[in-house]
Amino acid sequence: MNRIHLHIPSDLLFERVVRASAAELGTTMGFSDERIEDLKLAVSEAVTNAIEHGNSGKRTASVEVIFSLDQDKLEIEIIDSGPGVQSFNTDRRVVEEDNLEAGMLRGFGMYLISELVDQYEVQSSSEGTCLKLRIFRPNKPS
Amino acid sequence: MNRIHLHIPSDLLFERVVRASAAELGTTMGFSDERIEDLKLAVSEAVTNAIEHGNSGKRTASVEVIFSLDQDKLEIEIIDSGPGVQSFNTDRRVVEEDNLEAGMLRGFGMYLISELVDQYEVQSSSEGTCLKLRIFRPNKPS
Amino acid sequence: MSDVSTVIKREELGDVAILRILTNSVDAVSASAIEQASSNMNPITVLDFADVAFINSAGISVLLKFVVAARKEGHKIFCIHVSPHHQKIFKMVEMTRFMPIIEEQDLAAYVDANGAQAPSS
Amino acid sequence: MSDVSTVIKREELGDVAILRILTNSVDAVSASAIEQASSNMNPITVLDFADVAFINSAGISVLLKFVVAARKEGHKIFCIHVSPHHQKIFKMVEMTRFMPIIEEQDLAAYVDANGAQAPSS
Ligand SMILES: Nc1ncnc2c1ncn2[C@@H]1O[C@H](COP(=O)(O)OP(=O)(O)O)[C@@H](O)[C@H]1O
Ligand SMILES: Nc1ncnc2c1ncn2[C@@H]1O[C@H](COP(=O)(O)OP(=O)(O)O)[C@@H](O)[C@H]1O
After folding, report:
1. Domain boundaries in chain A?
2. What is the DSSP letter of A106?
3. Could you say which of 3.30.750.24, 3.30.70.1230, 1.10.1280.10, 3.40.50.300 is the CATH number of the domain covering C4-113?
4. Residue nearest to atom 14 of ligand 2 (CA)
5. Which one of B15, B53, B62, B76 would you pick to mutate in the ligand 2 pocket, going by the greatest count of ligand atoms within 8 A of its CB?
6. Considering the domain A2-136 in this protein, what is its CATH number?
């Protein structure tokens, strides 16, 4: 199995670097263009949450990303050292009139992640949160 | 100062991930498109050498890449755990008839690196090699 | 990054304002520069996504600010040149209810019908 | 990755072989698939770099295999649609002495002069 590690400071500028790496690894895995777009978006949402909610934007706190490639899947772990979260809400979340009027324009991240990847897992404690995303290869290499 | 760490297995497939990260960070630094191409090529050559000559392609030996961004420059350290090198030859190296006939089609990497970056430094010992590349920002942010 | 003119190019086509998003990534980094253009809309405003390769939820959030600003004034907002992937994402979160996707020819037809000069192609 | 047909598309324009490199990265990963096409050249062969965004020295090395193969047969090899960045790199290592860069119209003119049908545009 191949592992790629990436550490970035908690600055949303560097979310773009993780995203670019994810795209490249999606290509390596032979994913379709559309699947690579799904991957980029899911990774982007997870890293954004790790920076904003996990590390509360403390630049000195880094976000660790581990990409694990094997025959049948790409697994991505996004790890922060924040206060953790009791439970994630991955219910369908759509734009609503009331929310627009109240200026509540966020909250799509976890729903998008849950829809875009094949599997996800959360491990969270007072030491931090690890979100694990998995995308499977369309068909096994011969 | 911002630091991004990246670890890859010694497989040339993952040189592309480092290159994609370098390109994204070049954009973040405000480098011109042409300068970003220079950066990508220099990083690509350095990572290729670290994989091929440093770690001799032993996949389990990882190559570490550290990007350090500050106000005036991007510095990239490419670190392997190979046997080290006495001295690098960065003389101008061009395609030559005799070499073509002898099938010697390599050896441009260090020359290209030395031309494309603003500064470079080598630290090498029997523990491994660290090649440090620097590219400066065109003008300081106000 | 913070210079709005490098991130949005504003054009008028008849009475329609067309805001061409020039950054390829509509995300937290480009959001504030994009947002500035939401103060300069027409009764009919079209966001052009031709150059946009990526949108995340921070990007969706800034797009919704255009929706909010348009609704306050009773204005209408549309989008054009949305990639298949982003059409999927927009449908998932029902963005399209508030920012319908239109076709280039429908925009041209509207502008023609309203007596404005269509740009020569 | 190893399927040559996905990495190189071979076309004939009159008696000229045009090898369109379809991968955007000419590097160690794509090298072996690209190299396979070097066994299928014409007396005049043109490498088309229109889709190529990146070339490193592992890529230069595989391009030189085309030069070597062409020289063995007394054939000529040219390249077309080389980006300004890669023109710079090719000049640095003097690739252009062995694989001159030509313009689209010069290729078309040559093909015309030699009585071949130019492709309808
Ligand atoms: N890494 C994390 N650490 C702590 N809390 C988190 C983390 N990721 C998500 N959350 C919590 O889950 C909520 C929902 O996240 P999300 O659906 O992405 O919406 P948004 O980030 O726009 O609020 C966040 O508001 C936050 O409270
Ligand atoms: N990281 C490294 N560790 C050990 N030796 C190296 C390293 N990088 C370069 N070298 C040595 O320097 C030589 C020149 O490298 P380069 O100019 O890139 O050409 P090439 O890699 O094509 O041989 C290599 O052949 C190798 O002997």
Report:
1. 2-136
2. -
3. 3.30.750.24
4. B107
5. B53
6. 3.30.565.10
Distance (angstroms) between ligand 1 centre and the Cα of B89 equals: 52
Residues with CB under 6 A from ligand 1: A 45, 49-50, 53-54, 80, 82, 85, 88, 106-107, 109-110, 129; C 57
B78 forms beta bridges with B65, B131
pLDDT tens sequence for chain A (142 residues): 899 999 999 999 999 999 999 999 999 999 999 999 999 999 999 999 999 999 998 999 999 999 999 999 999 999 999 999 988 888 999 999 899 988 899 889 999 999 999 999 999 999 999 999 999 998 755 4
d(CA C32, CA D44): 54
Supply the pTM of this predicted model: 0.93
- Distance CA(B72)–CA(B88), nearest Å, equals 27
Predicted-complex ipTM score: 0.92
Question: In chain D, which among 53-72 make CB contacts under 8 A with chain B?
Answer: 54, 56-58, 60-61, 64-65, 67-68, 71
Q: C24 — phi, psi (to 5°)? A: -85, -5
**Contact criterion met (CB below 8 Å) for A115 and A52:** no
Q: Which atom of ligand 2 is nearest to the CA of D57?
A: 22
